[in-house]
């Protein structure tokens, strides 16, 4: 098998060098381009244009591309900056071409741009070889990990109706989604249920009643209690978490100094840990199968109650948005401290034309907790429990992340 992999490596290198060789070096000795930021933006554009329909699959794309880049540049001395830059670009390029082949032309052009600024031969060519090798090895390592769209949305039998038990929600009554995530192979977790949460509040308990009363009042489509500002927060964070955190992660990258390897490791750690967080979230969701607020409120209080936003097709407890936020906050804090270097502005595809400015990572977490209540699609307990789960997975992942670089 090793001989076969070596032959593939030689063939891929031949293609890469053919692409690179067409463009002469034009580097400037006075100002070096930020290759990690450049390929962060290339990755974001690639996933936006040719991403999968499932978020965890797209998180996997980011994780593979950037773990390969971090491995390829790992332990290179500062004097070999051309090699490190070439390794980062080549690893990301190789992984992204494999995972988003429809973007091959754009990716080839981006690689030519990056490598044209480096001196030909020598360190540049060694870096290209490093990147191709690490990406190829990681792609092989992650083959069949259960994070493809069909596996993520593997069929799951709807449970029999009963108080507290999840059922498909209106208006679409879509079958359960993302149940297969809990069967996927994590990057760092040893098992999906390592941090499974304690059960949600008992039906009819004071906490359960308070949760449903809050969602009923503040999360209804025609709420008189919800303010315009709260509605705006709900609308802004209706976007998917991967999309919503791409701009904050870019701000963290801008605030992170050090070598290309260290900055690539930030991106890799973020997405590796967020893949594992989504696996852990699915485990707890499908362990307890807690009904959504729309089902609970219609069954116990108001048969006509309608949430502000349509409810996603998976159980309430915990909120996937807030597990993502909790994990992201821990990872970003580990690399930059509790805030970015300067305030940053974010946008949202679910709130066109609206911008929000943040600095502290905890502000993003709090907005996600509130947004899902004000959207009428999660209880506050599910949101707050999600933050805890995400934080636990992230701390565990950070403590073991270096093992992925060896």
From TrEMBL:
Biased composition annotated in UniProt, kind: Pro residues: 158-174
InterPro entries linked to this entry: PAP2/HPO_sf (IPR036938), V-haloperoxidase (IPR052559)
Source domain of life: Bacteria
Chain residue ranges for the region called Disordered: 145-181
PANTHER family xref list: PEROXIDASE-RELATED, PHOSPHATIDIC ACID PHOSPHATASE TYPE 2_HALOPEROXIDASE DOMAIN-CONTAINING PROTEIN
Name by which UniProt lists this protein: PAP2 superfamily protein
